[in-house]
């Protein structure tokens, strides 16, 4: 690739190393951009451009010369699918597409759906070419909403979405590196307490309900009430954005998703985060498998049954629909779809994982589990390895596949030096959420938390130079569990046996400290089963059993890596240097740690190496770094008690069919 790139540069006369174009002294006038704006002929004499007049009589004609028609509206030629659809005219295809979108947007209770028409309502010069009336004939009385048009902006390109955002959405700006800075509104993170799942005869049995479960029930009727509310809101707008895209790079298990939203920000976010269809795939998209209605800023009605706030994120698995009311935080769409995958995939014996994933030059794959902020994105984005994905994966009999087409990196305190690949991915096309920038230079200040600490960048995975495309890989060799332990008692790295891996996977521990200005706060432990309890749909032991089976079958090794505090607890020590964590991860990948010398820790019984290349040995056992050993022991026991207490609810469950493993897992926790 690189060779080709150079060849092309040379043939274009771009050969000088700094990428600047050489001034041509010969040739017949391919002289655009040669500095003086003029054009040289063979004699090197400059002529004025006006010698070749533009073929336009009016400004409008001139503008029309600027643009040519492109995919996805171009008819397919040559391909097999093309042959099948060859009888369909372009017009017919457009009509079918609109029919499908109109059906998505139809009210299910009123007399008729909206008239949908393609294109930007701002361009009113010509009457709409394709108008689609919803097929139901009005019977009783026609409401005003049925008389208006809803313009559909269908799978717009990033450039088109930038224009929409900058023109119509407050808080949208282009940053100095070309990213689109946006505001997500009042919500700058997900609202897990406002998530609802429809409980019907099927899901009542299949899903995990009750204490500890993320699934808070709602009934079908309430879902329909909220759906109607979202659809009515969307139809009341001049225009809506529609994205038709895919999830899961495994071609056999690809899911078609449609996202209907009110903001260009949402459309660009999903463009980046889901898998982008080729023009051919889009032509033949057909009916989506799952649809999101994102009404964003429009709230739910708090008088509606089951609603406890004006925000509601509702999933209906039977209808294959999700409704979002009262939050504009785009991560709800990403993680809502992830929840859906946590239902659909295990039904096909495929394990869905809240993990990052990368692959070495020799094809060795590593998974990185961990709760938010523990380092999945940071550590899977590794310049020496191929990135398969940073957050959501599937593990099937064929190996691993990324669910998404993009990455969602935390940006707080982002530095070019420590995370160069993420830094460089923040360019044209990337959505930057809730960052603060200089009003004149538009340079982003990544240390500024004025809007939120959860600042984020969403970019297509190919913005990372060594992304593995397609995003699939063989069976994992290493399973790395990340915990950010603000108590500072877990070792920076330990090797786990299978039972310990399962124990820590089911526990899903991390401890973070809420940002505070006034002094030191106690860290709070978070336990989130499967390192993502907010997104799983079935009981944690179901996923755990699948993970154990796969790790056993393919001989993967488990590791626990503490990316949190070192040298004492929060307020005394500091977060372990990213540089050291990277060295630890390198030693796991290379196999060096597998054969290192180990000793066992007290209480948690973790195997810790005595040496890791590039890491000061004394930090490998946290007891060394605490000046007061009693303090250390006390804190260690405190954490151990929290683990024990959290695990109580799982003590009565069997992991898969293996009684022996279940017992081993129960015994793999802290002993004190
Ligand atoms: N030793 C370390 N290891 C990993 N990350 C570190 C370390 N020290 C500091 N960090 C910072 O911690 C953050 C880790 O966030 P990251 O985006 O990787 O989380 P994540 O696990 O992907 O979470 P989410 O699921 O919310 O996307 C980054 O901002 C990174 O710079
Ligand atoms: O979903 C989000 O907002 C961010 C994320 O990746 C997580 O919390 O795991
Ligand atoms: Ca991440
Ligand atoms: Mn995540």
Description:
The protein is of the alpha/beta class and 672 residues long. The chain is built from 17 helices and 34 strands. The strands form eight sheets. The protein has a ten-stranded mixed β-sheet, sandwiched between helices. Strands 15, 16, 17, 18, 19, 25, 26, 27 and 30 form a nine-stranded mixed β-sheet that branches. The chain is globular. 44% of the residues are buried. Residues 1-42 and 73-85 have low confidence and may be disordered. The protein binds adenosine-5'-triphosphate (ATP), oxaloacetate ion, calcium ion (CA) and manganese (II) ion (MN). The site of manganese (II) ion (MN) has 3 residues, from loops.
List the main descriptive attributes of the protein structure presented here:
672 residues; alpha/beta; 10-stranded mixed β-sheet; 9-stranded mixed β-sheet; globular; disordered N terminus; binds adenosine-5'-triphosphate; binds oxaloacetate ion; binds calcium ion; binds manganese (II) ion; EC 4.1.1.49; cytoplasm; ATP-binding; PEP_carboxykinase_N; ATP binding
